[in-house]
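Tokens help. Our protein:
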Amino acid sequence: MNKRMVQIIAKKDIKSILATKQILIPMLILPTILCVIMPVFVVYLLQTYNLSLINGLDQMVNLIGEIPGKEGEVIRGISDRKSQEIYLFVNYMLPPLYLLVPVITSMMIAANSFVGEKERRTLESLLFAPINIKDLFIGKMLAAFLPAMSISLGGLLLSALVINFLTYGQFNSVLFLTTNWLMFVFWIVPSLTVLTILFNILISARVKGFQEAQQIGGVTVLPIIGLLIGQVSGLFYLNPMIILLIGILLITISVFLLIKISKMNERHILFEKQVY
């Protein structure tokens, strides 16, 4: 692997991303809404109003409180009902929503990186450039992975600061960044980001435009919605073991996609449908 060539490709794509308002603006708006505005709004409502009868939080608190082990003990140890509901929202309902940040961000970047070459008519220069296909692939992967992870971690930091600022006086401790959150950030988010990028690479080889790639790539959001529904319905609740298994599943699927993509080891196959 030519590290210098990989760096050049990654830097070129990242500069292109920063110069494209169609991608940059949603990348900044999404974490602001999901990591700052929405958590602040929900925590404020839970602190101010009784929402248990409206959204079923009361039932969820009871169900989690019955779980044996540390999580059940934590919920039972919080005497105030509103505090229990806030803890539930921050540590059970917010993590799946937070996953939308790396997924949608990496999806947009990967689609732009691969399909964008077709739309910008720069594909031909890449096809005939003296660049190893492996270096090209790794460079474009990094160009999608690094910004997506940076934005995700930045959004998480902002969310942690804001939520802990609002709730520290209520809990007298740091509410955010529990074991579940740390495993989400360092296990699930990187695995899911890589999977999203690989999935979009497969899509990009078969579509002609950025919008089409985004629409098909939106399928990656469905498992996150399923994760949220599973918790709200009481089907399961996030704990370190479930998070570990989810990460293993994501890595397994990523390996499968990587093997499939590795068979597309020629430029004309990886970018087979060009825009003329």
